[in-house]
Design brief:
It is globular, with a radius of gyration of 18 Å. The protein has helices spanning 4-12, 22-31, 38-46, 49-59, 73-80, 82-98, 108-129, 136-142, 145-153, 155-168, 172-179, 184-194, 199-207, 218-233, 250-255, 259-275, 277-283. It has two domains: 10-100, no CATH class; 101-284, Hypothetical protein af1432, CATH 1.10.3210.10. By secondary structure, the chain is mainly alpha-helical.
């Protein structure tokens, strides 16, 4: 059994703790400056060819739904806006950062596929409900980032939780609390805070299994909560759950939806996911 104090102590002492690419840090800084131009943001992104290529493929996918092809990062910045391009750079940067990570006994390919699906579904739900939360896509992709950190630094604990989940047919979140005492949500929130990510993203990572714990942005947390469950129910990738978690009743109140509403959205989003299969091939 581990506790969060020991987790923090170990992570703070790690010399190779993952850091976000410089491109994201520079873009985030520029976005926060009211004097910044689209050309300046584009120039920073274009300094990294790998990130540039993935962003152009992403914005030209059917997920973004532009009627004409986006041929340059400058165009993408103008059409998407500063905040959306920042969150897109963040999402792509995380994939780049962990692309050479060893899988050990954790299915990293399945994990990233689940994460992408969660991002797509979270953003689709945001669109259907017109909540206008620009962080929805990034929050859905990053919600389980703590599992990648556990795979790197707490392999024995992660494997024990996975075995518990498998043997008792549990969601991984429940198994972690029974076996380790510290779930991936807390570890993920630690690393997100270490990266100085916006508080709304840190909160979504920390609370996506417990949306009724009220803090500053319960709507985003609820969107991610549903996106994660829908991705698992559609069996897209694998996140460690051996039983699909149930939707917290708080979600219906906070998002002002009924169970029938969500069931309807689920069927529409399943079709959208099937139409966006190309995203899985170039992000992973």
């Amino acid at each position: 059994m581990i506790d969060m104090k020991n987790v923090v102590r170990k992570l703070e002492g790690v010399s190779d703790l993952p850091t976000l690419p410089t491109v994201y840090s520079k873009v985030a800084s520029l976005v926060n400056d009211s004097r910044t131009t689209a050309a300046q943001v584009a120039k920073v992104i274009e300094s990294d060819q790998a990130i540039t290529s993935k962003i152009l493929r992403l914005v030209n996918s059917s997920f973004f739904g532009f009627s004409r092809r986006i041929s340059s990062i400058h165009q993408a910045v103008i059409l998407l806006g500063f905040n959306t391009i920042r969150n897109t750079v963040l999402s792509v940067s995380v994939f780049k950062m962990f692309e050479s990570e060893r899988a050990n006994n954790f299915d990293l390919t399945g994990f990233w596929k689940h994460s992408i699906a969660s991002g797509l579904l979270t953003k689709s739900l945001d669109r259907y409900l017109d909540t206008g939360i620009e962080e929805a896509f990034a929050a859905g992709i990053l919600h389980d980032i703590g599992k990648v950190v556990m795979n790197k630094y707490f392999q024995d604990e992660l494997e024990a939780a996975l075995e518990k989940a498998r043997s008792e047919q549990l969601p991984i979140f429940d198994a972690e609390r029974l076996v380790n005492g510290v779930p991936h949500t807390e570890i993920g929130a630690f690393i997100a805070d270490h990266w100085n990510l916006p508080y709304g993203l840190v909160e979504a990572i920390a609370l996506h299994h417990t949306p009724s714990v009220l803090r500053s942005n319960p709507k985003l947390v609820c969107l991610v909560h549903v996106g994660n469950i829908f991705a698992r129910d559609m069996e897209i990738g694998f996140n460690g759950d051996f039983r699909v978690p149930e939707i917290d009743p708080f979600v219906y109140e906070e998002l002002e939806v009924t169970e029938d509403d969500l069931n309807g959205f689920y069927m529409r989003m399943k079709e959208e996911i099937e139409e966006n299969q190309e995203i899985f091939s170039f992000l992973i």
